[in-house]
Amino acid sequence: MIETERLLLRPLRVEDADAFVALHSDDRVSRFIGTYTHQRALDRLTSIERQWAERGHGLCAVELKSSGEFIGRAGLNYWEMFDEVEMGWTLRAEAWGHGYATEAARACLTWGFETLDSAYFTAMIRHGNTPSVRVAERLGFTPLREDTLAGNPVTVYSIDRPAAHP
């Protein structure tokens, strides 16, 4: 578990399927990442659990420390097709504008650089997703390349391992 001033981050589990589906059912959230049926959520969450077991990292549930409320997901996801680890974040629309995405992603990045031997992490952001670009820039990500993810054009941002984490 990763703890910040306001948030708790823990590995996502199949038991989170209902919250995961609800997160992605809001059009404001899903327009850049798509929706999930219950079965698709179970499949994705099973894959996330497998990644935690096999690679020692994956996506986390983001919960408010004050209430335990599930407000989204953030974490490090390995993409075999790119042979890269991506830092991702997705929050419920009601949680936007409070700095939670930046706080969660910064904690995951710190943990990732302390735990993994990756030279850099990426953030794959669909064109037009200005709020995620702002989060990436606040974290120190810079554009690396243009690519395609799940049939959608993305700008791939990257952040190099800081000197403090050799």
Automatic annotation (TrEMBL):
UniProt key word DNA damage: no
One Pfam family from the record: Acetyltransf_3
GO molecular function: acyltransferase activity, transferring groups other than amino-acyl groups
Residue span(s) of domain N-acetyltransferase: 7-162
Keywords: Transferase
Protein's UniProt name: N-acetyltransferase
Organism: Streptomyces bauhiniae
